[in-house]
Design brief:
It is a single chain. By secondary structure, this protein is of the alpha/beta class. It has two domains: about 210 residues, Spore Coat Polysaccharide Biosynthesis Protein SpsA, Chain A; about 90 residues, no CATH class. Helices cover about 50% and strands about 15% of the residues. Strands 1, 2, 3, 4, 5, 6, 7, 8 and 9 form a nine-stranded mixed β-sheet that branches. The longest helix is centred in the last third of the chain and has 29 residues. The protein is globular and about 70 Å long. The model has no long low-confidence stretch (mean pLDDT about 90).
Length: about 325
Amino acid sequence: MVKVSVVVPCYNEQDTIQLLLQAVYAQTFPNDQMEVIVADGLSSDQTRPRIAAFAADHPDLVVRIVDNPKRIIPAALNCAIGASQGEIIVRLDAHSVPDADYVARCVAGLEQGLGDSVGGVWEIRPRNSSWQARAIALAAAHPLGVGDAQYRFTRKAQPADTVPFGAFRRSLAEQIGLFDESLLTNEDYEFNVRLREAGGRIWLDPSIRSVYFARATFKDLARQYWRYGYWKARMLRRYPKTLRWRQALPPVFVLSLALLLVMAVVWPFAGWIFVIESSIYVMVLLLAGIHLAWARGDLSLIVGLPLAIATMHFSWGAAFIWSLISG
């Protein structure tokens, strides 16, 4: 009998999908009580052949592909859950690698009643060895980049507002509903909002760990955080009380700079405020870059870390504002 269904949204992940499947196969949780359902958005690379080859080489673990013609993450998750049979759903991403005890610890947390959704922390790694990828991976786990998002760095088990790759019982999804397909991102956060509103609890355990491969270029990072900011604003229209300070600061900062530039046309002192505010911002980021460059012996971080964090802030902030004003 299948006890755990690992569901994976996927599209053109030929470089990392085998790493994920190998990590799932190596879990301490019994393979004969587990299945892997990959919801693929009709990948055009070698993703599907590599999944099929892995499944053929590992017949003691059920690995299945289901189509996700909508090519959006919430639809992929819903397709995978609909095709799954497990009592417990464990969500993973195609560019993640869970520790060997990941599934076992998630199941234990649910069975001990620690939470209705249980998850852990990301160990964020660069997707390749380039200076941009190294900087982005560190920025994605830096407090200046992600604020108080505990799942990026906490060492203390605690209740949380959300977790990445949460594990939950199928009965929970039947109670509160599946993932909202009107949101292209932030679907996991919205799901967790409904869970909390229904009286449920989310448990973050730092002993539950997975490696997450960050974006490789600033261009890809900007696209990613534009989507995050845009769809976060859409979600907050429904749940305004869920706004966190880490989510509010980037749009407030971007808006303040834009307003100061406009005001400087008729009020020169606004131009000086703009210079002061932007200078302080640049200095803080440069100091963070120098600190990490010294600690890691990587001089490229002096420039790379500030560029990565600024890309995150401005992409998120601008997209958030645009989402609010575009209706």
